[in-house]
Each structure stands twice: as structure tokens, then as C-alpha cells.
Amino acid sequence: MFFLMMILSSCGVTRYIPEDEQLYTGSSLKITTEDKENVNDKTLEVIQSRLHEMIRPEPNSKFLGMRIGLWAHYKGTQEKPGFFNRFMNKKFGQEPVYFSQVNASKTEELLLNRLENNGFFYASANSETTGKGKFLGMAYEVEVSRPYRLEEFTLEGDSLSIQKEINEILKETKLTKDARFELQAFKDERARIDEALKLKGFYNFNGDYLIFEADTNNYEERKFDLFLRLKAGVPEKAIVPYTVNDIRVYPNYSVEEKTSAQDTTVIEEIAFIQDVETFRPELLERYILIKKGQRYSSEQSRYTSNRLSAIGNYRYVNLRYEEVDSVTLDDGGKLDANIYLSPLKKRSVRAELQGISKSNNFIGPSVLLTYRNRNLFKGGETLNISASFGYETQIAGGDRTGLSTYDIGLSSDLIFPRVIFPTQIQDRFRYSVPKTKVSLGVQSINRIGLYRLNNVSTSYGYYWNANRFVYHEINPISLSIVSLSDVTPDFQQILDDNPFLAKSFEQQFIAGLNYTFNYNQLGDKFRTHKIFTGFSLDMAGNLIGAFDGKSTVEEPNKIFGMEYAQYVRGDLDFRYHLQLGEDQVLATRLFGGVGVPYGNSISLPYVKQYSAGGPNSVRAFRIRSLGPGSYRPDSINNQSYFEQTGDIRLEGNIEYRFPIVPYLKGALFVDAGNVWLMNENEALPGGKFTGSWASELGVGTGIGLRIDIEFFVIRFDFASPLRKPWLPEGERWQKEFKPFDRDWRRENFIFNFAIGYPF
């Protein structure tokens, strides 16, 4: 801590600024108008964001008022800087941005030009210097008046077939009467027309062949007519549609192979050319959407490439078109389609030594061995066989620290890149074909000093991407047998004291189906507003129960001599990310989950229950230390770990993420949530969900540091509770903050270590 304070206290940069220079502190921009009737606040907001892009240079970045990157540069470039200063400059240093680099008059020209591109002609701009001494900035002000608005939009010429197609496309244009003159809108419309024409067969068309012309001569007011036409000299091949001629597929393509010596198989007018059959043509044909004789379509071509890539058998998928014969205005042109597929290696063995960090604070080493066989039956099938051994111990759990686990598992997946179903349905999926997955696995988890939990599971289901945002997964068959063994006296006492918990750990047969839906925009870097919506449904025992008749907890029905679980569980996860600037995000999440046990079950199986607290939940509380409801165990230890779960979970989070220096980011966050029971449990008083649930939410706040290297994030979160739901009503909100008191810190200062962002 002392070392850190020494660094921060020395971050002043004034003494390093040359005598003839001033440090540039940035600029402000103000937009004014006297025409409020025609220029509303929303328009000014849009224009302001576009004008900000024109203001250069960018000042040196600051963190908590300190220019750490600039300080690192100055210290690292002085005479004999030393190892530490050279290292800091290399990793975090920023070149100084001086006021002498600012060209105010050039910036004013750029601002006026951008305003004209957005319809605001005859605007004015001025600027003045701000600040004093060694720190100077700029203040820009522009004044705008009523912009030019569209009166009529006309397509010139209608004799060519392409012009008739464009006329149809323009029926959905956004360039309608009263639209503001906007250069970017014209570019977007040209791109839209280009894309629509390529869907209609115009293979060689280019948006640059279109030109917009604006005419203001017919109006005294600020109005204009817009004309769209083809440029002069557009080549004939650009204005005619093309049809697909021959289609050739090379399933085992490599640069060295000689296609002349290969065998050809024709399926549905598609020629499959390969020397030795590596992929069955009748199966591969189903992925190809382009057909002989149909018009060229960029969408059909893109979807065909997506579907072939999604097989998972090919390193490269290359669809190339070749023009054949001559082109005429009457007959158009023809294209041969050649599809080159370069396979991945058929077999591979992979050994991994992993460092595992789980959301329940378990960390430790794990060894994973994976054997993979691709294209097993010459239809793109993939067989994965994995064996794992891991040791985990729980950290950052306060009195619960030290719970250790051995985990041994063997699993196999057989994935078919198509729908295995009685009828042919995969043609209905255009973006990507669903994959069929058959899984079988065994796992043994040994919680040292407590119990051993054995699990045998199998499933059969489908998963696919409906588009680049939407993902579906459904497992109509999901079977699992869970059995408890090697129970120690200590854990047996826990079960004896809590019949609900004992019921959830009994040997059970879990049979049902589950479905998952995700809509995910969070990976789209260019969106300001991003959302994620996840929904999952897990049902067990309902089909068996329908044939087995009515059952009760006291007289449960059995299958294969085992009681079977009956429950319905549903989760809804909504996230919203607001991009505030480069690497600055306001991230929020709302999560709700409920599980309803019925029939044979008085509670959910333990592996299906919810918990709250920990690095991916309410971070101001230790793992599984919240709830259920207002319940608080008499003593906090590894035994109470198993009691604090529930059938219902509600949670909300908000987090502001910001950059500090390259690869290091910070966060400020507030979390709230808890779990509750669906049914009353005498062993867990206050745990049942009631109308006063809002007063039983645990609330916490904290700060975080994240080492964010591309595709890998190490996260450290430091949090403290604001409200403890187990305290008497009226006393739950935290009223004292004693960071220098050891006892207070032990109880109220929580450290979380995790891999990846929490949401």
C-alpha cells in the first residue's frame, strides 16, 4: 500500500513540461440555434456526437485526476531512467499531447464541413482558448439554423430491367418527404440498393454505379429535390442478372491435388469431385442452398458458406463464382459455382493442465485428456471422448475456507452436423443446420470429510444458431442418476437435522427435458446499446408421472427401483450494456429463477438448487452465505454451506467499467439478491418466499480490478455489504463503516477472485 501511495503521489507532470509548451487538456463543444421550431434537442444531440469525431487531437488520458500514462512516459524517457521507469513507459506510457499541436482554424473548417454534410448550410463556428499556465484547452461553439429538407425523390430512367428493380426497392426507402439532407443517409441508401440487387441476381453490380444529385433551384425555402440515376458508362455486365450454371464441390480440396484424376458423383445436378470418398455426397448436398438455374443470390451464397462451415469438419470453405459465356441485356449472364472444402485433421489428442476457478470460489488444478475423431462416418460426425481429474479447494469463503474436492469424470459426445429426426426438416433452417448431440458421462465428486456424489448422465438433443445473435438448444431426452455414498457422521448429522436437504441428496432418477434460448448482442463492438436475453426451462418427471399415476412425498412412485425427481425450473437472465465511450461500459443484469417441486419431490435435487453470494452473484457476501430469505445459521462453517440454497432466486446488478491503463480495467458495482424456499422448512426459519421478499434482499457494493488480455480476463473484486437480510427488520442497513477495524474488516470486507466478467 505504501509503495502504491508513493507512485500515485509522484504522478504530477507539471515539472516535466518543456518551457515553450503547454499540455493540451482537451476541448468542449457547444451547439446553439435560434430556430428551435425546426431544430429540436434530439437533432442537436445527434449532430453533437458527429461533430465530436472531428475534434483533434485527443488529450492524454486521466485516471482519478492523474495522467499516469503521461507520467510514465516522462519518467521513462529521462536520462538513466532505471529498470522500473523503462518498464512502466513500455507498458503504460503515452506520448504528450501539447497545445501547439492544436489547429483551431482547421478544426472549425472540419466542423462546418460536417454540418453541411448533415444539411446545416450557412452555419458559423468560432473557438477560444481555455485554462491557464501549463494546461490549456479549447472551447468550440457552432451556431446552426434550419436544415434543408427533402421535397421529392425521383429515380431517373425506367427502360432497363435493373431500373425497374431499383424502383421496386425504393418503395421501402427511408428517404421520404421532409427527411433532412444527410450525406450518410444517401450512402446508406446506395448500399441498401446494392445489397438488394445482389439478392436479385445482379452479380457484378456495385453501389458506386449509382449517383445522387440534389437540386434546390425550385424552392425559396430550404428544400431540395433528390434524383437518383445510373452513372454514364456503366458496363453492360453490371446491369444484367446472372443465373447459376454448373455447381462443383471439392470435399477434400488441397492446393496440391489434381482435379483431373478425381471421380465425380452428381447429386441433384451438383458435381462432387474427390479421388477417395471422404464425405458422402448425398449428405453434403443438403447443406448447399444454391441450385442450378436459379438466379444468383448473395444471401443464398452466404448461407451456404455458413452451413458448410458449421459442419465443423473444414478448416476453410471457399465459394467462388466464374463467369461463363457472353453477357446480353436480354439473356443476362451465367455463373459456375465452385466450392472448395479443406478438411481439418481427422484425429487429434489433446492434453490440458488447467487452472480452474468456479463461481462457488473453488479453485485448483485439473488435468483434461481429450480424443477427437472428425468425420467418423463420412458425414461430418465428431466423436469426443474426455477424461478429467481435478482437485479443488474453496478460498475466500471466510469460515468456510478449506472445503476440498476430488473430481473424476469420463464423458463422450457424438455430434451429427444434421438433424437426426424421422422426417427431413433441416431445409427449414437457412442460417445454420441444427446439430444432433448424443452424450454419455460418469462423474464422481468426493467432498473430503463429507460425502461422495456419483452421477451417471446421458442426453439427446439439438443445438443451432438461428442467426448471429440467436442460439437455441433443446434436449428432449435428459437422464441422470445421482447417488450419495461414503457419508461421514458430520454430514449425516446435517442431513438428519434437515429433512429437506436429506430429500434433495437421496438417490434419484432425474428424467426430463430442457431448453435454452439466448439472444446475445454483447459481442457486437459497434453497438452503443447491447442486450442479452437468456431463458432456460428444465422439466423432470412429468412424462414418467403421467404414465405412473399420482404420487406423494410420503408414498413416492419409483422407476427401476429408484425414486424419480419431479420439478419444473425456469430461469430468465436479462442484461443491458450501455457503451459510454471507448472501453467504458455501464453493465446491468436482472436474473430471476424459480423451481417448483411437485409429486415425488418436496425440494429440488441438490444439484438443481439456487444459491446466492460469491463472485458471479452478490459479491459482498461469501459463497452460499445469503438466504434462504432471512435465515441465518447458528454457526457459519462448511456444514451450513449445504443449507443455504433455495428454489427461487432473484438478483440485480449494476456495474460501471472503465479503463485504467492498457490491459488493466476498473469497476464500481452494486449487487442485490437472495434465494428463497418454495415450501416452508422448519429447519430454515424465514426461508419461505413471501410478500416481504424485497426487504430480504442482500445488498452490497464494491470496486474491482480486471486484467483484460484479449479473450482472457482475470478479475479481482473487493466488496462490502450494505444490507444484511438476516438482521432484525429496521437494523438491516449498514450504518457503520470501519475499514481500519480488523474485526469489522473480517466480517464486512469480501475479496473475490474469478476468471471472466460476472455478466
From TrEMBL:
Top-rank lineage group of the source organism: Bacteria
Domain spans labelled Bacterial surface antigen (D15): 369-747
Chaperone keyword on record: no
Keyword Transferase: no
UniProt-annotated location(s): Membrane
Entry's Gene Ontology cellular component terms: outer membrane
Keyword annotations from UniProtKB, A to Z: Cell outer membrane, Membrane, Signal, Transmembrane
Protein name in UniProt: BamA/TamA family outer membrane protein
